[in-house]
Amino acid sequence: MRRRTARVLLLVAGALLPVVAIAQPPVSPTSSSGLVAPKLQAVETAINLAMHRYGIPGLSVAVAAAGSVRLSAGYGMADLENAVPATPLTVYRLASVSKPLTATAVLQLAAKGKLDLDAPVQRYVPAYPEKQWPLTCRQLLCHQGGVRQWTDEEFHNTRHHASLTEALEFFKNDPLVFEPGTRTLYTSLGYNLLGVAVESVSGQGYLDYMRENVFTPAGMETAGLDDVFALIPHRAQGYQKAAGGELFNSALSDTSNRVPGGGLVATAEDVARFALALHSGALLKNETREQMLVRQRTRDGKPTGYGLGWAVGTQRGRHEVYHIGGQPRVSTVLYLVPESGVAVVLLSNLEGVGTPLLDVARQVAEIVSR
After folding, report:
1. Torsion of CA 342, 343, 346, 347, to 10 degrees
2. Domain of 175: which CATH number?
3. What per-residue confidence (pLDDT) applies to 29?
């Protein structure tokens, strides 16, 4: 039976009461957290069904609502070989869930007048040669910049890049694949340019800026670089599934070639704290956040599925924004209902299940919003 390691916020004399190693089916105390027992049970049922259906070894979840983290839990195993359970402390590669964090940094600098979203990106990234058409930070944020996506070899990169500028080398001389603003093409490489722009404008290294202006204000104590050489406490092992269903270890992939768009790590709870800080105005003013979460349009007025750093859509008449991440070792989801501030974070150590986990996040948000 799958085990759960969970931490819920219990308002008992203002203290945080841990609940550990509860066997399935989960039993919730009636004096529950911000999630009453029936909601907690429904959330855990949805998660366990998905883990069973897709064979997910380990998963951590965080749910935020009404201004605080209401549930932070781990299910299954973070490391099968060493029998390490997934817990609220398990750290995962965020993959493309890194993009909303980088976008927040870019919009902070734009709001301060230090960066013009509609200026040519070469103003801030002189190492990136001029192309056949002008290209702006706004277009990069919403995947209308025409920068190509990575190749399979680049996706499974094993070379370590010492800096963000160095990580421009393998694509900076390539032509744009279309005129910016005319259509969309999802690209993580475009976010490399945005990360260098953050460094150029702020005068700080990317990680230093993120720590000072995003991670620390949001209370993200575990957020940092996905350094394959560093010893990161509680880091999850990653897995792939063969055609026959058997699991095996993920291949090495050094994400130093895509840090701003896919090279960060954190716990699920810390990602939920980012969502809370974004919703509360601690990271961006309300008008800037609203600009971030609006569906962008191409030059001819056609709506796209992207805001500035987020996928944007409507589900059952409800405005939703989210980001899915998929890389070697992980599948990740950050899901946010802008109007209510309900946020769901699902971080798993199985590749290739990001889309199913998005459906689970929607279910969880629906349960919490009832």
Report:
1. -160
2. 3.40.710.10
3. 26
